[in-house]
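Example record for the data management plan.
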Amino acid sequence: MSQDPRLWPANSRVAHISLQGQVAQPLVVGETYRVMVPVLGLYAAPDAQQLDRQMLMGQAFSVLEIHDGQAFGFIPGPGGRPSYVGYAAAKGLAHGAPLPTHHVVAIRSLAFAQPSIKTPNPLPLPFGAQLAVTGEQGPLAQISTGQFVPKAHLAPLAQQAHAPVEVAQLFLGTPYLWGGNSAFGIDCSGLVHAAFQACGRACPQDSDQQRQHLAGDRLEPGTPLRPGDLLFWRGHVAMACAPDMLIHANAWHMAVAYEQASQAQARILAQGDGPVLCHLRPSA
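Corresponding structural encoding:
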């Protein structure tokens, strides 16, 4: 297993059992918790000031230890392997929470404390949040927390989007947030991750991981773009939505925005971040 800290499930006190024979720390299997707040930050260290990634309500997190209010663990990927390691506030997690049955398919939704859309101070929910639906009252679905969410904003977990580019376009105008994964704020790789996840396709979290590990054809420079193609720069990724048009979360616009591919390439080169490193046509 790589010692990339994003994939290495060990700290100074504890390690995941998958590292048996590689570390001296006590080994633990870990326990599955679920995110119980709309968005929960994931950090490289308990006192880190920079957000690494975010988890959404209902998402699973394998907790290896809880220490001083911080849960250390990882987001499980395919086969339960660590896909992103870090620290999250333990108060935002719950052990033994009901398994989600539905996900939010509107770009943003609301959870009301009472079965009325006139109830004040609803809880905002982002696209992709996973909820356990327990019943219905008219146009609202009741979830395991006792709150009520518009049924029109939900779909069963098995119902998935068809094309990542269509999902990415839902996020148009979403504010740019370094490390963000939600419709309240998102970064370039978070947008790609959200788009692929909504289609039921596994996708790493960061752009360098996506460039290295997403399956597909690595195309020659200058190959015409097709919708869904990915262009990677050093520390950045964008998705094609037309022959010379990209959609990407970027700090230039401070939002998810459309930008001509030729213009983006020239601008990024001029600002010192180099040329396109990879043109990827992901496997269907």
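Summary line stored alongside the record: The CA atoms of residues 69 and 161 lie 37 Å apart.
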